[in-house]
C-alpha cells in the first residue's frame, strides 16, 4: 500500500496558500501545538526548579557535537561493537542503496511483508514504496503512522504524523480501509479515542504475530556498546523489535553517540521536548543477537543520504545534532498556520526548512530544486525554534546562511528581478547622498505602489501614508530640531 | 559620551517622527545626540534575504558612519540585532580584515532604544505623559535576538496617564519578517491577522512596539480591518509630554 509521496510538490508559498485556506486544519494545528507547548513549558519550569534546563541543553548538544566531530572513529567503533554482538552491518550511501539492502534481506527470507517501527529515516528514503515495488508490503504499526498509511496520506509532523486529522476522519479511514489490508474495523466503530485505539490494536495484533521480519530506525546508536535505542509511547515498536525472527534497523550516521552515559541528557531532553512528558513509556535497547531471545538475525544499515554533505557545511552541520523531538514545529508560527505538508518533506517545520536543503543541496534544477530552495525562506526568523531546541541548534542562523547559499547558487546567468533590486539597493544604501536623492521620491513611490501593485503587500494590508519629508531632510532643514 | 542616532532606513523614509522623538527624548534626558549624515541602512534586508555580497558595502558604510562614537542608539530591535549579530558574518565573508576589526569595534556599541535608556542612562521614568490605553507587542528580534526582556515594559509602566493592557500571545511573531512578508505573503497575513485579532480583544487604543517594520505590517492590517487601533512606536510615547 502506497502512502503517497512528497515528490513533485510545489514550492512552499504555493503549498502554504492551499493549507491556509483550510480552516479546520488551522484549528486542529493551533489546538494541538498549543496544548503540547503548554505541557512542555510546565516540564521545563519543573526542571528549572531543581536544576537548570540550560545546562541540560548544553550537555545534550555537547554529546551530539562531540560524536559528530569524531564521526568517522565513532562509526568504526559502532560497526565493530555491533559485529562483535552478532549483528551484520551494512553501509548505504543513499536511499536506493539502503532500500536495496532491506529488500534483499526480506527476499532472502522469502517474505512478502514486514512490520515497521515508526521511523523518520525509512520515510526519508521512501522504503515502503521501494519495498512495495518489490512486492513486499511494509505495515506501519505506530498508531499515527497507521492512520497516515491507511488514509493514503502523507505525514505532517515528526512526532504526530496524523496531527492534521481529527478523530471523526480517523474513524472513516479505519472503517473504509482496515478491511482492505487485514482485520477490518468493527461495524459499530465510534470516534471515541479508546474505541479507535482498540480497533487499531486488534488490527495490528494479527500483523505482529505473523511477521517474520521487522524494520526499525533508531533514536540513538551507542558506539561503545553497539546498542541501538528506540524511544516510543505505544509499545508497538517493542513488538516489532522483539517478535520477528529478523530485525533490520536503518540508522542515519548522525545518530551515533559515544557512550551509554551520553544517553543521560538526551533521554531527559527528548520526551520533555517532544511529548511534554518527563519520561516516555517505552525505551527499547538492543545490541545484536541474544540467543533464544528476540530476533536471531539482526542487520544494521548505516545510512549517509546527504549527511556527510551537511557535515561539511560549517554553519549547517549543527542540524545533525537534531534528535527529532519536534519542539521547533510546535512553537513555529509558520508551521502552526500551514501544517507540515507545505514543506514537501517528511521533515517539516523549522528543522525541515534547514535539514532538507542541507541533505539535498540547494540550487538544484527544475521544480524539485525550486521547492528545496524555497524552504530556507519559509520562516519569519522569529527565533522561537532556537529558543526551544533541546540541542541548541541555531535554526535562524542556519536559515540565513542557507538563504545566502540559495542566492549564491543562482548568481551568474540572467538575474531575477529580486537580485537586481538588491544590487540596486546595495548601491543606494552604500552612499547617503544617493539614498537622500531617492527619498525625495518616497511619496511618489508609495503612490505608485498603491496604484499599481506591490500587490503582495496591498491586497490585504494598507501602506502607511508618506511623510512630508524624510528624517535626514528634517535634520538638515531644522539643524536637528534646534532651529 | 558621544552618542549617535542610527535612525534606520525605514524610519528615515517613512517614519521621521520616530527619529524626531528619539532626538527630543534623549535631549530631554541630557544627551546631546548627533546624527551622522553619511548613515544609510544596517543591511538587514540584504543579509536576511541571502544577499551577503550586496550587504558588504552597506556594512562598510555603517561602520564608517558610526566610527568614533561611544554609543549608537537605534529605535529598532531588528536593526540593532543585525548590527550586533550579523555584521560580523558579512565582514568575515568579505575577507577584508580592516572591515572585520571595524565591525568588532562598532557592533558592541549599538543599542536598541530601551536598552540604552535602562542600561546606559539608568532611567526607567523618562518623564513622559501619554493618556491612552496601550498594548505592547514585543518584536521577535528585540525579544530573542537582543534579549531586551521587560525593559520596554518598565519604561511604559512609568509613563503618566498610560494604561497598559496585557496582549495574549504577545511573544508570537506578527508575521512581518522582512521579505517574508512578500515572499510568503499569505502566511504572513495569516500570522498578522491572528495578532490583530488579539490586539482588538485587548480593547487598546494604541499598539506600541519598538520596531516600525512590524508596526507597518500590523498597522496595515489594522487600518484595513478598520479596527480603530493606532500603531505608535515606543519612542514616540516616551517622548510625549503634557
Automatic annotation (TrEMBL), chain A:
Sorted UniProt keywords: 4Fe-4S, Electron transport, Iron, Iron-sulfur, Metal-binding, Repeat, Transport
Keyword presence, Translocase: no
Record-linked Pfam families: Fer4_8, LUD_dom
Domain of life: Bacteria
The LUD domain, residue ranges: 76-303
Domain 4Fe-4S ferredoxin-type: 319-391
Classification via Gene3D superfamilies: Alpha-helical ferredoxin, NagB/RpiA/CoA transferase-like
Name of this chain's protein: LutB/LldF family L-lactate oxidation iron-sulfur protein
Protein source organism: Nocardioides conyzicola
Amino acid at each position: 500500500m502506497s502512502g503517497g509521496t512528497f515528490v513533485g510538490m510545489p514550492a512552499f508559498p504555493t503549498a502554504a496558500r492551499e493549507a491556509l485556506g483550510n480552516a479546520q486544519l488551522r484549528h486542529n494545528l493551533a489546538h494541538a501545538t498549543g496544548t503540547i507547548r503548554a505541557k512542555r513549558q510546565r516540564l521545563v519550569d519543573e526542571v528549572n526548579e531543581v536544576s537548570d534546563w540550560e545546562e541540560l541543553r548544553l550537555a545534550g548538544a555537547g554529546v551530539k557535537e562531540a560524536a559528530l566531530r569524531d564521526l568517522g572513529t565513532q562509526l568504526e567503533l559502532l560497526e565493530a561493537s555491533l559485529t562483535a554482538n552478532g549483528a551484520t552491518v551494512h553501509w548505504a550511501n543513499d536511499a536506493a542503496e539502503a532500500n536495496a539492502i532491506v529488500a534483499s534481506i526480506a527476499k532472502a527470507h522469502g517474505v512478502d511483508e514486514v512490520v515497521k517501527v515508526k521511523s523518520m529515516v525509512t520515510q526519508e528514503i521512501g522504503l515502503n514504496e521501494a519495498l512495495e515495488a518489490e512486492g513486499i508490503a511494509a505495515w506501519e504499526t505506530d498508531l499515527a503512522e497507521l492512520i497516515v498509511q491507511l488514509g493514503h496520506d502523507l505525514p505532517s509532523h515528526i512526532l504526530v504524523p496524523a496531527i492534521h486529522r481529527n478523530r471523526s476522519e480517523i474513524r472513516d479511514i479505519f472503517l473504509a480501509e482496515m478491511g482492505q489490508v487485514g482485520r477490518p474495523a468493527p461495524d459499530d466503530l465510534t470516534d471515541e479515542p479508546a474505541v479507535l485505539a482498540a480497533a487499531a490494536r486488534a488490527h495490528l495484533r494479527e500483523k505482529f504475530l505473523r511477521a517474520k521480519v521487522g524494520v526499525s530506525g533508531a533514536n540513538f546508536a551507542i558506539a561503545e556498546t553497539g546498542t541501538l535505542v528506540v524511544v516510543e509511547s505505544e509499545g508497538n515498536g517493542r513488538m516489532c523489535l522483539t517478535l520477528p525472527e529478523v530485525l533490520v534497523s536503518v540508522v542515519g550516521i548522525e545518530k551515533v553517540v559515544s557512550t551509554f552515559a551520553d544517553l543521560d541528557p538526551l533521554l531527559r531532553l527528548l520526551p520533555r521536548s517532544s511529548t511534554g512528558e518527563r519520561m516516555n513509556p517505552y525505551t527499547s535497547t538492543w545490541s545484536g543477537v541474544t540467543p533464544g531471545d528476540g530476533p536471531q538475525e539482526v542487520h544494521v544499515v548505516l545510512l549517509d543520504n546527504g549527511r556527510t554533505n551537511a557535515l561539511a557545511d560549517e554553519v549547517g552541520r549543527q542540524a545533525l545534532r537534531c534528535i527529532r523531538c519536534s519542539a521547533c514545529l510546535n512553537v513555529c508560527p509558520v508551521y502552526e498556520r500551514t501544517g507540515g505538508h507545505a514543506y514537501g518533506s517528511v521533515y517539516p517545520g523549522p528543522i525541515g526548512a534547514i535539514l532538507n536543503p542541507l541533505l539535498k543541496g540547494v540550487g538544484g534544477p527544475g521544480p524539485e530544486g525550486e521547492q528545496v530552495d524555497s524552504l530556507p525562506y519559509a520562516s519569519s526568523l522569529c527565533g522561537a525554534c532556537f529558543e526551544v531546541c533541546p540541542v541548541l541548534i541555531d535554526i535562524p542562523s542556519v536559515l540565513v546562511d542557507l538563504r545566502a547559499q540559495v542566492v549564491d547558487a543562482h548568481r551568474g546567468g540572467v538575474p531575477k528581478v529580486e537580485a537586481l533590486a538588491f544590487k540596486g539597493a546595495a548601491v543606494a544604501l552604500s552612499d547617503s547622498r544617493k539614498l537622500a536623492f531617492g527619498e525625495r521620491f518616497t511619496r511618489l513611490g508609495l503612490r505608485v505602489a498603491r496604484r499599481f501593485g506591490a500587490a503582495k503587500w496591498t491586497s490585504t494590508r494598507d501602506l502607511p501614508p508618506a511623510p512630508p519629508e524624510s528624517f535626514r531632510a528634517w535634520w538638515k532643514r531644522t539643524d536637528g530640531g534646534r532651529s | 559620551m558621544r552618542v549617535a542616532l542610527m535612525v534606520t532606513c525605514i524610519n528615515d523614509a517613512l517614519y521621521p517622527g520616530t527619529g524626531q522623538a528619539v532626538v527630543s527624548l534623549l535631549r530631554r534626558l541630557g544627551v546631546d545626540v548627533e546624527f551622522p549624515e553619511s548613515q544609510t541602512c544596517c543591511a538587514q534586508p540584504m543579509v536576511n534575504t541571502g544577499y551577503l555580497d550586496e550587504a558588504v558595502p552597506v556594512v562598510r558604510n555603517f561602520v564608517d558612519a558610526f566610527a568614533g562614537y561611544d554609543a549608537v542608539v537605534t529605535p529598532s530591535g531588528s536593526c540593532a540585532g543585525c548590527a550586533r549579530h550579523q555584521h560580523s558574518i558579512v565582514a568575515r565573508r568579505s575577507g577584508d580584515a580592516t572591515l572585520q576589526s571595524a565591525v568588532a569595534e562598532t557592533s558592541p556599541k549599538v543599542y536598541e532604544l530601551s536598552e540604552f535608556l535602562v542600561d546606559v542612562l539608568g532611567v526607567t521614568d523618562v518623564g513622559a505623559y501619554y493618556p491612552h490605553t496601550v498594548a505592547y507587542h514585543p518584536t521577535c528580534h528585540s525579544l530573542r535576538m537582543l534579549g531586551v526582556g521587560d525593559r520596554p515594559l518598565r519604561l511604559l509602566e512609568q509613563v503618566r496617564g498610560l494604561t497598559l493592557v496585557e496582549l495574549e500571545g504577545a511573544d508570537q511573531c506578527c508575521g512581518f519578517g522582512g521579505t517574508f512578508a512578500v515572499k510568503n505573503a499569505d502566511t504572513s497575513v495569516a500570522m498578522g491577522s491572528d495578532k490583530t485579532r488579539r490586539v482588538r480583544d485587548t480593547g487598546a487604543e494604541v499598539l506600541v512596539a519598538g520596531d516600525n517594520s512590524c508596526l507597518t505590517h500590523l498597522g496595515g492590517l489594522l487600518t484595513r480591518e478598520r479596527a480603530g487601533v493606532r500603531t505608535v512606536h515606543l519612542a514616540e510615547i516616551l517622548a510625549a509630554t503634557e
